[in-house]
Amino acid sequence: MSNSRSTSLLLALCLSTLAMTANAADARLAKRTVENAGKLRLAAETGTDAYAIVESLTSEVGPRMAGTPGYDRAVAWAQEKFTSLGYDKVYLEPVTFPTWERRHERAQVLAPFPQPLSITALGGSVGTGAEGSNSILAQVWIQTKGSLVTVVWSAVVSLSALYLIKAVIGLRVEPGEEDGGLDLGQHGEEAYIPGN
Fold first, then answer.
1. Cis peptide before 114 (omega within 30 of 0)
2. What's the rounded mean pLDDT across residues 18-27?
């Protein structure tokens, strides 16, 4: 049996053992836990107010990006909603987060045929400054840096994944099997008829 086949068999055996262990643990759940789960299932089948709560938030408060007046309305809404639902510990905690404020963005083609462009900025994106960017070399350099980062990131992730595969199950078959041909070793027959 090849190394990769025996490793695959061992991995399958381990996974099936884990599955059986998990099923055995489920069988030993406390009676109270099973009863509570049944009550929750029955309550869910008869209906909950979950949809009504989400609908209330989205229609009464609307968009609520962090740091906006909509966010402040959502916080007040949530505090009032959970208090009205009878939760006994409803309180606010101070949080800090970066905010992004949409300003005016514009772009235009300067040459050879000047014309305005319709654009929008993504949240948190960095502007080019008040003077804009007129240098094609600056843009090419930015794109080159982005491409290099992508290549390096892809290489590191790919090589890490290959190293992990090699360490766990191996990437190659046994040398004898490779010499004899993978078709014969993996499928039990030759792919090419000798002499043709």
1. no
2. 55
